[in-house]
């Protein structure tokens, strides 16, 4: 199950942090590391700080974008110290461990960590189903990147160690097997925006983020997404035939 959980580091500035994060992961039994456009590649510093987790660093998958790192995932969890406004999707590390462990039974899970200076962008956070915040000192809540990774991985390990075959069957309320992947959702959001813009419903920037949050909360399954896509296509079809009709008349 731990193999289905990946740690994604977005545009990390210091290669040492990549090494320290890899070490944090491996001590907790996690090995899948994705690096989104790291500012410094894997260098001596990264290897030195990884200590015995050199393999995790060397096997890290480097991708150009956030989307590329999570496209095949059916659950994406973003992390940030500044999340108070996201009430509906906010979780803390303990709950995250349980959610990730359940979801990892039948799908790929991404835990995404932001840039050292500015964290994750709002657009990136909108692509996440859950938002994890470590309830640190409100006056000084920003942890070092690798330490945040350590804490989250520790809770995943705790949830992993508590797993028994019985709870595996009973607690499966998050069945990621049938859930739409991040990429499928992304296509759907683009489709939604295109259609609703073309009929004049979406006229400002505020609507899509709200719709994204709503749909993220719904844990949309693949077959449900097909219905939603079908509805959009039906509207598009009508628009085309209506415009043909207007053109001809
Ligand atoms: N000034 C940045 C801090 C980034 S710290 C900001 O305001 O977002 C680098 C990364 O470590 C964050 O993007 C997040 O992934 C993680 N992190 C640090 N402190 C955290 C906290 N209290 N809760 C959750 N994640 C945290």
Uncertain segments are none
- Helix tally? 11
Q: Give the strand order of the largest sheet, numbering strands 1, 2, ... along the chain.
A: 3-2-1-6-4-7-5
Oligomer: single chain
Largest sheet composition: 7 strands, parallel
Q: What's the order of the H and E elements?
A: EHEHHEHEEHEHEHHHHH
Number of strands: 7
Rg (CA only): 20 Å
Percent range of helical residues = 40-55%
The percentage of residues in β strands lies in 5-15%
What is the average of the pLDDT values? 92
Structural class: alpha/beta
Q: Which shape, going by the Cα principal axes?
A: elongated
- How far apart are the termini? 61 Å
Each distinct ligand = S-adenosyl-L-homocysteine
Notes on the structure:
It is a single chain. Helices cover 50% and strands 12% of the residues. It is built from eleven helices and seven strands. A seven-stranded parallel sheet has the order 3-2-1-6-4-7-5. Strand 1 (5-10), helix 1 (15-27) and strand 2 (32-36) form a beta-alpha-beta unit. The longest helix has 27 residues, at 222-248. It is elongated. S-adenosyl-L-homocysteine (SAH) binds at residues 79-82, 113-114, 116-120, 132-134, 136, 141-143, 145, 148.
